[in-house]
Structure formats: structure tokens, C-alpha cells
Design goal:
Elements: H1 2-24, E1 28-36, E2 39-47, E3 50-58, H2 75-90, E4 99-108, E5 114-123
Parallel strand pairs: 3-4
Antiparallel strand pairs: 1-2, 2-3, 4-5
Length: 125
């Protein structure tokens, strides 16, 4: 159980690092861990006139045998994100804006903290 709570804490810190990444670039955070019956959206942001749905994937490092964090966002995960995004948009005041789906890879930085790599427009909705 301690391993699970450690992993959850790592994931929360990684999502916070990804949110800061966007905010430092002028984005406004609209929702964090937005839950729908069809899935969860890690980050929902406003960047100018674009709504950004960001899926955050964190790894303790690339040497885990799992590959890059973004590799975990395959077709099935993309379908779940699209379904959750459609549900979010039904009640959103931003539903008329164009939507971009990013995948954000977060790994520990050698000097401490996190390295954040954003794959903009990682897939189409």
C-alpha cells in the first residue's frame, strides 16, 4: 500500500509541475482532474482562444522498461479522453472554442524537480 500512495503522490506532483509549465506560458488553468463518468481530464486550460486538454504522463525515469511516458497514450486512451472531453464541453462556456489535445511527459530532473516535455497537438479530436 505504501508503494501505491508513493506513486499517487509522485503523480500529483507531476501534474502540478505540468500545470505550472502551462501557467508560466500564459495559460489559464480551468480544471484539474476533471472527472466525468467516461473518464478524467488531467488538465483543462485556456491558451488564447484555444481550449487545451492535457494528459499528463509521468515516469520515474526512462530506464523502467516502459518507454517514454507519452507512449502510454495509445488509441484506446485517446478515445477515452475524447469522450471525457465531449462530456466536459457539454456544460463548458468554452464549448465553441477550438480544442487541442496535448500529452505532457513529466520525469524527474537530474538537479531536482521535474523535466516537462509537452507534445502539442499530440492527437486529433
Amino acid at each position: 500500500m505504501a508503494e501505491r500512495s508513493r506513486a499517487a503522490a509522485f503523480g500529483r506532483r507531476a501534474e502540478a509541475a505540468a500545470a505550472r509549465y502551462y501557467q508560466q506560458r500564459g495559460c489559464r488553468l480551468l480544471a484539474h482532474n476533471y472527472r466525468t463518468r467516461l473518464g478524467e481530464l488531467d488538465l483543462v486550460l485556456l491558451e488564447g482562444g484555444t481550449l487545451v486538454i492535457a494528459e499528463v504522463k509521468a515516469r520515474a525515469g526512462y530506464d523502467t522498461g516502459w518507454g517514454s511516458p507519452g507512449a502510454a497514450v495509445g488509441p484506446a486512451k485517446q478515445r477515452r479522453l475524447l469522450a471525457a472531453a465531449r462530456q466536459y464541453l457539454q456544460t463548458s462556456p468554452y464549448r465553441e472554442l477550438p480544442v487541442r489535445f496535448d500529452v505532457v511527459e513529466v520525469t524527474p530532473a537530474p538537479a531536482g524537480g521535474f523535466a516537462v516535455h509537452c507534445i502539442r497537438a499530440a492527437f486529433e479530436g
